[in-house]
Design goal:
single chain, mainly alpha
């Protein structure tokens, strides 16, 4: 801000007050204009950040829904195989008969042990925090956005913990190797199917929770 002092001579109190008021008004006008420009800049930055964050959350929500649908189909297929094998063992069927049943079930269901977890992005959130535009977004939206991204981090952490707790990696590799060479160990295979079914159930529960959080973050935008 730059001010030019009056060059005219001040010959009376009236002249002094006039020049004084001009200076004060100039300062107030300059400060007001500066504040308005800054407010406009902040509002624009906040709106841009909101649009980018919500677009990112929508993309993550679509990923979650896709993964949830795929994991539900996988869980149903594995549960069907598991239940059939449990009935075989309850009926005391011979291992070779159970092994043949396994091969037929696997061929019928298009068997795999995939667990699909969505690829969750947070670049828009990180940028908004880094350039401080997040601080200019109103509190109500910020609380919803923060909850959504915290939910993403929590779900990834929970998935990793559940995988370590529930799944036996070497056993799964051995079961899949046996499948490839056609020498199924029925009980070992049933154990692997049981682990994967439990893991899928937990993953689905986590995905439903995350889906609810992401939808809540977009609640106002979807309402409009």
């Amino acid at each position: 801000m730059h001010l030019e002092l009056p060059k005219a001579r001040v010959e009376s109190l009236k002249d002094f007050l006039k020049h004084y008021l001009m200076i004060v008004l100039s300062i107030l006008t300059a400060l007001g204009l500066e504040a308005w420009i800054e407010h406009t800049h902040h509002a624009h930055a906040a709106e841009t950040a909101r649009a980018q964050i919500e677009a990112e959350i929508r993309a993550n929500l679509a990923e979650v829904k896709f993964s949830l649908a795929q994991d539900e189909r996988q869980a149903r297929a594995l549960a069907k195989i598991r239940n059939a094998l449990v009935e075989d063992f309850k009926a005391r069927a011979p291992d070779d008969a159970v092994a043949r049943h396994v091969q037929s079930l696997v061929a019928l269901e298009g068997f795999n042990l995939n667990l699909r977890w969505p690829s969750l992005r947070q670049e828009a959130w990180d940028v908004a925090v880094a350039n401080q535009s997040a601080s200019w977004i109103d509190d109500a939206h910020m609380r919803r956005y923060a909850a959504a991204y915290a939910g993403q981090r929590d779900m990834v952490t929970t998935l990793s913990a559940n995988l370590a707790l529930v799944m036996n990696g070497p056993r799964m590799v051995d079961a899949m190797t046996d499948m490839r060479i056609g020498t199924v160990q029925p009980r070992e295979f049933l154990h692997v199917i049981g682990q994967m079914t439990l893991m899928l159930d937990q993953a689905k529960n986590n995905l439903v929770t995350l889906q609810d959080r992401l939808q809540a973050a977009l609640a106002e935008a979807q309402a409009h």
